[in-house]
Amino acid sequence: MISTRFTEVFGVRHPIVQGGMQWVGVAELAAAVSNAGGLGVITALTQPTPEALTKEIARAREMTDQPFGVNLTILPSITPPPYDEYRHAIADAGITIVETAGSNPAPHLGFFHDNGIKVLHKCTSVRHAIKAQAVGVDGISIDGFECAGHPGEDDIPGLVLIPAAADKITIPMIASGGFADGRGLAAALMLGADGINMGTRFMCTKESPIHEDIKRKIVESTERDTVLMFRPLRNTARVARNAVSEEVVRILDDGGTFPDVQALVSGARGKTVYEKGDPEAGVWSVGMVQGLINDIPSSGELIDRIMADAQQLLSKYSTEAAAVGDLA
What we know:
By secondary structure, the protein is α/β, with parallel strands linked by helices. 44% of the residues lie in helices and 14% in strands. It has 2 domains: 5-198 and 297-327, TIM Barrel (Alpha-Beta Barrel), CATH 3.20.20.70; 212-289, no CATH class. It has 14 helices and 10 strands. α4 (83-92) links the parallel β3 and β4. The relative contact order is 0.13.
């Protein structure tokens, strides 16, 4: 058993969180992760309406009596989703943990805290983590450059970002980007984190809703099979390397603008990848950590394995360090 500030404050058995992934964070996966002792997360905006989110939360409750959370990513948009209605759906359903991402969480904290909800906020830099802590979030998820999706614009990998953030953050902090096994969890804890967040690794589990062909594609891929889109737009996104993503990079590198690639990067095409199993159908998020993924276990098998391996590693090096101390 590994107890950390994160497990104590957020009330979960193991310091492992399933990332809130668009089209992936559904009831089956969240419930499986929570049943295994981690923190499963339903992605709010995967559901088309707040009413649909309410039903998805109810479905998860039929599958687990353990805590699970909801991800709410809030981004500026010409036609934004009804965020206030999603917030109320989360609170009315009795959810006690929300993962926020995107914009500054400050405008939403009062509502969530008034409803007894702890907020875990995703950050890609130390300065953003410090700001989130200052406005009152309950925990930080610090995302290194290796992560899928949006790694920010600083290009700081986890080996530097995690301890740099740990030196400044006093609330629970989990590390994200590049984690797939017990070695990663042990390393994150040694670097100062209180747990890990995994997205790509949980995409490749039996309960993940994505097509089996995409899971096999992840297993077959290496750490080199991602690309960074939108760099010239200062909105970098790490996605799978395929003909579509490489075309987007070429167009923007040649001076194109977002309207020139909008049809290529549509969310509908990305959703089709996961539904139909064609990795070339659109752009889809995946992290460099796919180079460490070699199988498609159940979420329970994965978490049990990670915890056993991490405990063995931590015990081994603790014993060796003590032996060296005795010799000195």
